[in-house]
Write a structure and sequence with these properties.
The complex is a heterodimer of chains A (586) and B (81). Chain A is α/β, with parallel strands linked by helices. Helices cover 37% and strands 18% of the residues of chain A. Chain A has three domains: 155 residues, ATPase, nucleotide binding domain (Nucleotidyltransferase, domain 5, 2-Layer Sandwich); 148 residues, 2-Layer Sandwich (Nucleotidyltransferase, domain 5), CATH 3.30.420.40; 215 residues, Carbamoyltransferase, C-terminal domain (DHBP synthase, Alpha-Beta Complex). Chain B has 81 residues and is an all-alpha fold. The chains are: A alpha/beta (586), B mainly alpha (81). Bound molecules: fe (ii) ion.
Chain lengths: 586, 81
C-alpha cells in the first residue's frame, strides 16, 4: 500500500512516499525548483517520489495533507477581525493566495496529480507529532511540538503509544514561542523562517547569564510564563498578527533601538539580545518539558516543529529534565510534515501497526555512476575515475588532509535542512584558518557562524561531552554538545566560541563511505573529525543533481568534487568558472 | 522590425495591461470586502465585547488549553476543518 504525504503553501513544501508504512522516498520542492524554501505545490517532489518507487499515481491509495486549510483560514480571518483596520495591507496581499490556491487543495491535488483516491487532512501539530513519533524507535513517548503557528496551535503536548497519538493541551496563536524567536531574528536584521539558526549561533557570543544580561530581563517582560511552562505574549510588542513585520515600535523601544539593517555588523548589544532570546526559549522549554514529564510519566520524549531544530537547547534536554531518551525528526520543521501526514494516515487512521524506524535521512534522489559519467562526458568535463570504494575513501581523506575543500556528492540526497554526508562540503578542522578559507572560497557567511564537526559515533564520546549513549538526533546534527577541553585547540575550525560543537555522529551502516572517509582522515591526522557544511551556493538550496554540484564547485572556490566514483578538479576545468557571489542572495 | 517581433511585443504588452487591470479590480473588490465585511463585523464584535484572539496576561494558573483531537471519528480527517 502506497501513501503519499504532501505539505505546501507556507514554507518548505515537500512530499513523502510510504510503502506499507516504510518511508521509501521524501524530498523538499526547493531542491528541484532551486528556490530556497519554495512553498509552492510540490509537483517535482511528488514526481520524484513516484519515479523512485517505480509507480504511477494510480497505485497511491491515500494522500495525507499536513494541515486543515479551513481552520487556518478561520485563524487568518480572526486576525483581520481583531486587528481591523490595521491589517488592511496584509488582507490585500494574502487573501488572493487563499482564494486561488490554499482553499483549493483537493482540486489542485486531483488536477495536478490526476489522483482519484482519498485525501485526508491532518491537523498541523498532529502532523508534526506524527512525523517524529511514528518513525521514532519508541513504543511510547511524551510528544511536544513547538513552531511558529499551525492552524491555531503554536505549542502542544501529549502522549503517544503504538499507533495512537493523543495531543492533550495547546497554546494558541498569537502567543508563540517560535514567533517570539522569529521576531528577535527579524529585529537583528535576519530573515524570518530562514535565519533563526543564525541567532542561535550568535547567542554564545553574548552574555548567557540571565542575572547579568540586561536584555534577558527586558525580553521576559513580553512573555508571561506559568509554573507549568504555559505562556502568553504581550501582543503590544508584536505586529506579526496584522502586518508583514514582526516587532512593533514598542518592542524596538524596549530594546532601545530600531530594527537592525540587513548585513549590519553584530555588536555586543546584538549578541546579548541573541543570548537573551535563547535564554528565554530555554527557560520556557525546560518548564514545559518538566511539566510534560510530570503529566505523562514517560521517560521517552519526541519533539516536533521548527523550534525542535534549536540544537543548542536539544543538547541540554537530557541534563536539565528527567527525560531519559529523546528523538527528533531530522526534518522537524514544516518540510517534515509530509512524512507526518502520510504516517498518520497509515498508522492512526488505517490502524496499521508500526514497524519502521527512521535511522537515516538519505531519502532523496540518487544518481548512478553511469548517469554521473554521462553528465560529465556530455559537458566535456575533465575527470578521473577511482577503481574501488577503498580508493575513493583514501583519496578523499588525503585531499581533506592536504587542506583541500572537497565537494562530496554520494548516494541519496538528505531529507531536511542539514547536509549529512550525501551533499556536503568536507574540509579539515585542524587549522583555525580553515574557517576563513571556507568562508572566502565558498560560504561567504557571517563570521560568527560556526562550522559543524562530523565524527563517527564510536569516537564521539572521546571528543565531545555527549549524553550516553549518544542520542540518535545527533546523527541528524540536532544536538550541540561541549567539545572536551583538551581537544578544543586541536579542532579550532569546528569549535564555537563557547567551546561547543554542533556535531554530526555517523554510524557505519548509515553511510559506509562517509564513515570510511572520517576514519581514514583520523588515521592520517590522528583526529577522526572533519568539517561538514552544506553543499550549496549562498542563497540557494543544497545541491541535488550532478549538474547542481558541478555548477556549485565551478561558481565557488571548492577545490574538487568527489561525485560517485569520479573526481573532478576545479583547476582542470577552468574554462567553466563563474562567480556565484555576483548573484548570491541570502 | 519584423511583424512577428512587433506582434510578440504587442501581445506581451497586452498581457501586462490585463494583469494591471485585474490587480486594480481585485484590490478594489478586496478593499470593499475588507471594509464592508471585516470592518463591520469587527466593529459590531468590539461593541459587544467579542475577542477573536487571546492576548494579555491573566492571573489564571495556566495558559494551557484543552486539545483533545484524538477522540473523533475518522471521517473528520476527510474534512478541511
Ligand atoms: Fe509547523
Amino acid at each position: 500500500m502506497y501513501i503519499l504525504g504532501i505539505s505546501c503553501y507556507y514554507h518548505d513544501a515537500s512530499a513523502a512516499l510510504l510503502k506499507d508504512g516504510v518511508v521509501v522516498a521524501a524530498a523538499e520542492e526547493e531542491r528541484f525548483s532551486r528556490k530556497k524554501h519554495d512553498s509552492s505545490f510540490p509537483i517535482n517532489a511528488v514526481n520524484f517520489c513516484l519515479r523512485d518507487a517505480g509507480i504511477t499515481i494510480d497505485e497511491v491509495s491515500h494522500i495525507g495533507f499536513y494541515e486543515k486549510p479551513f481552520l487556518k483560514m478561520e485563524r487568518v480571518l480572526s486576525q483581520h477581525l481583531e486587528c481591523f483596520p490595521f491589517s488592511f495591507k496584509t488582507f490585500l496581499s494574502s487573501i488572493p493566495s487563499w482564494i486561488n490556491e490554499k482553499l483549493r487543495v483537493p482540486g489542485t491535488i486531483r488536477k495536478r496529480l490526476k489522483y482519484r483516491g482519498d485525501i485526508f487532512f491532518v491537523e498541523h501539530h498532529l502532523a508534526h507529532a506524527a512525523a517524529s513519533f511514528l518513525v521514532s524507535p519508541f513504543r511510547k513517548a511524551a510528544v511536544v511540538t513547538t513552531d511558529g503557528v499551525g492552524e491555531w496551535t503554536t505549542t502542544s503536548f501529549g502522549v503517544a503509544e503504538n499507533s495512537s497519538i493523543r495531543l492533550m493541551k495547546e497554546i494558541r496563536f498569537p502567543s508563540s514561542l517560535g514567533l517570539l524567536y522569529s521576531t528577535v531574528t527579524a529585529y537583528l536584521g535576519f530573515s524570518v523562517n530562514n535565519s533563526e539558526y543564525k541567532v542561535m549561533g550568535l547567542a554564545p557570543y553574548g552574555d548567557m547569564n540571565p542575572e547579568t544580561n540586561p536584555y534577558y530581563r527586558k525580553l521576559r517582560r513580553v512573555i508571561d510564563v506559568k509554573g507549568d511552562g504555559s505562556y502568553r505574549l504581550d501582543m503590544g510588542y508584536f505586529k506579526y498578527h496584522y502586518a508583514d513585520r514582526m516587532p512593533s515600535d514598542k518592542f524596538c523601544g524596549l530594546l532601545g533601538a530600531p530594527v537592525t539593517g540587513r548585513g549590519a555588523e553584530m555588536s555586543k548589544r546584538h549578541k546579548d539580545i541573541a543570548a537573551a532570546v535563547q535564554l528565554v526559549l530555554e527557560e520556557v522549554l525546560t518548564k514545559i518539558l518538566m511539566h510534560v514529564h510530570k503529566v505523562t510519566k514517560c521517560d521517552n520524549l519526541v519533539l516536533g516543529g521548527g523550534v525542535a531544530l534549536n540544537s543548542v537547547y536539544n543538547g541540554k534536554i537530557l541534563r536539565r529534565t528527567p527525560f531519559k531518551r529523546v528523538w527528533i525528526q531530522p526534518n522537524a520543521s514544516d518540510g517534515g510534515t509530509s512524512i507526518g501526514a502520510a504516517s498518520f494516515v497509515y498508522h492512526c487512521i488505517l490502524k496499521n501497526r508500526r514497524g519502521f524506524v527512521q535511522e537515516h535521512a538519505y531519502l532523496g534522489p540518487s544518481f548512478s555512476d553511469e548517469e554521473i559519467r554521462s553528465y560529465l562526458d556530455k559537458g566535456g568535463v575533465k575527470y578521473s575515475e577511482l577503481g574501488s570504494d577503498d580508493e575513493l575513501v583514501r583519496k578523499t581523506a588525503a585531499l581533506i588532509h592536504a587542506e583541500k575543500v572537497v565537494g562530496w556528492f554520494q548516494g541519496r540526497m538528505e531529507w531536511g535542512p542539514r547536509a549529512l554526508g550525501a551533499r556536503s562540503i568536507l574540509a579539515s578542522p585542524l587549522r583555525p584558518e580553515m574557517k576563513e578559507i571556507l568562508n572566502l572560497k565558498v560560504k561567504h557567511r557571517e563570521k560568527f557562524r560556526p562550522f559543524a564537526p562530523a565524527v563517527c559515533e564510536d569516537d564521539a564520546l572521546k571528543y565531545f561531552e555527549c549524553d550516553t549513549p549518544v542520542p540518535e538526533p545527533a546523527d541528524f546534527m540536532l544536538m550541540v554538545y561541549p567539545i572536551r577541553k583538551r581537544w578544543r585547540s586541536r579542532i579550532p575550525a569546528v569549535t564555537h566560541v563557547d567551546g561547543s560543537g554542533r556535531l554530526q555522529t555517523v554510524r557505519r551502516h548509515q553511510n559506509p563511505l562517509y564513515y570510511g572517509v572520517i576514519k581514514e582522515f583520523g588515521r592520517l591526522s590522528s583526529i577522526p573529525i572533519i568539517v561538514n557544511t552544506s553543499f550549496n551556493i549562498r542563497g540557494e538550496p543544497i545541491v541535488c543533481t550532478p549538474h547542481d554540484a558541478y555548477r556549485c564547485m565551478m561558481g565557488t572556490g571548492i577545490d574538487c568534487l568527489v561525485m560517485g566514483r569520479f573526481i573532478v578538479f576545479r583547476e582542470d576545468n577552468g574554462k567553466d568558472m563563474w562567480d556565484s557571489e555576483k548573484l548570491a542572495e541570502d | 522590425m519584423s511583424f512577428n517581433v512587433f506582434f510578440r511585443g504587442f501581445r506581451a504588452g497586452l498581457h501586462d495591461f490585463g494583469s494591471c487591470i485585474s490587480t486594480i479590480v481585485n484590490s478594489v473588490l478586496l478593499a470593499v470586502a475588507y471594509v464592508a465585511g471585516v470592518g463591520v463585523t469587527s466593529i459590531v464584535a468590539k461593541v459587544v465585547g467579542k475577542r477573536f484572539l487571546d492576548s494579555g496576561f491573566s492571573d489564571a494558573p495556566s495558559y494551557w488549553v484543552d486539545l483533545r483531537i484524538d477522540e473523533r471519528p475518522d471521517e473528520d480527517f476527510y474534512r478541511q476543518f
